[in-house]
Specification:
By secondary structure, the protein is mainly alpha-helical. It is about 65% helix and about 0% strand. It has one domain.
Length: about 210
C-alpha cells in the first residue's frame, strides 16, 4: 500500500511581512538610541522608509509646545518639500542632521507617545491603500500649508490645532490608513478655511478702520 505524499504547504512570498505599528517602531527607536545624545541623521538612518512619517510626527508633537513651535515648524518644511519632490527619504543639512540632541528629550517624548499610539492603533490600521508617490506629494503639500499657520500665525496658541492636524496626517501616513488620511485631510481643509476666514475678517476690519480715519 503506497503512502500518500503530503502536499507542500504554501509559503508566503519573501516580501510579505506583517505590518509593524508606529508605537513599535518608536519603542525600537528609543531602545536603540545612544545613551547621552542622538542626531536627526541617526533617526533617519534607523527609520529608513518610514523616516518621513516619523520625523513629521515627532516634529509636529514638538510644534504643539508654544516656545518651540516656530523652530519645529521651520524644520517640518524640509521633509514636506522633499516629499513633494519625490525623495525616498528626508535629508537635512549636515549642520542640522549632525547636531547632537539630548536623548532624554527623545525618551520623554516616546514615553508619552507610545501608550497613546498603542491605544489609537486599536482602531487605526492599514486600509484603503493609496498610491505611495501620489500620497506622499499630497501629504507634503498639505503639511506645508498647515505649517504656515504654525510658523506665522500671530495669535497665542494658534499653533496647537494645525500641529495636531499635522500629527494626525503623519500618523495616518505611517499606519498606511487611507480612511484616516482622508478624514485628516478633510479636517485640514476645515482648519484652513476657518483660518482664511479669520484673516479675511481681520483685513476687512483694518480696511474699514483705515477708511473711517481718513
Amino acid at each position: 500500500m503506497s503512502r500518500r505524499t503530503p502536499e507542500p504547504r504554501a509559503t508566503p512570498p519573501p516580501n510579505a511581512r506583517a505590518f509593524i505599528h508606529t508605537s513599535v517602531v518608536l519603542k525600537r527607536l528609543l531602545d536603540g538610541a545612544p545613551a547621552d545624545h542622538f542626531t536627526l541623521g541617526w533617526v533617519m538612518g534607523s527609520l529608513r522608509k518610514r523616516a518621513f512619517g516619523m520625523i513629521m510626527l515627532l516634529l509636529s508633537l514638538v510644534a504643539i509646545v508654544p516656545g518651540l513651535s516656530i523652530v519645529a515648524g521651520l524644520l517640518l518644511m524640509i521633509p514636506a518639500f522633499q516629499m513633494i519632490a519625490g525623495r525616498s527619504a528626508p535629508v537635512f543639512p549636515s549642520r542640522i542632521a549632525n547636531r547632537p540632541l539630548p536623548t532624554r528629550h527623545l525618551a520623554a517624548l516616546a514615553r508619552r507617545a507610545v501608550p497613546l499610539l498603542k491605544y489609537l492603533e486599536k482602531i487605526i490600521h492599514p486600509r484603503w491603500h493609496t498610491p505611495l508617490e501620489a500620497t506622499k506629494r499630497l501629504v507634503g503639500t498639505v503639511v506645508i500649508i498647515l505649517n504656515a499657520l504654525v510658523v506665522v500665525a500671530p495669535i497665542p496658541l494658534s499653533n496647537v490645532i494645525p500641529a495636531l492636524v499635522i500629527a494626525l496626517i503623519s500618523l495616518a501616513y505611517l499606519e498606511e490608513d487611507g480612511l484616516l488620511l482622508l478624514i485628516a485631510l478633510l479636517v485640514a481643509v476645515i482648519v484652513l478655511t476657518v483660518a482664511l476666514a479669520a484673516v479675511w475678517e481681520t483685513v476687512r476690519g483694518v480696511t474699514d478702520w483705515v477708511r473711517a480715519t481718513i
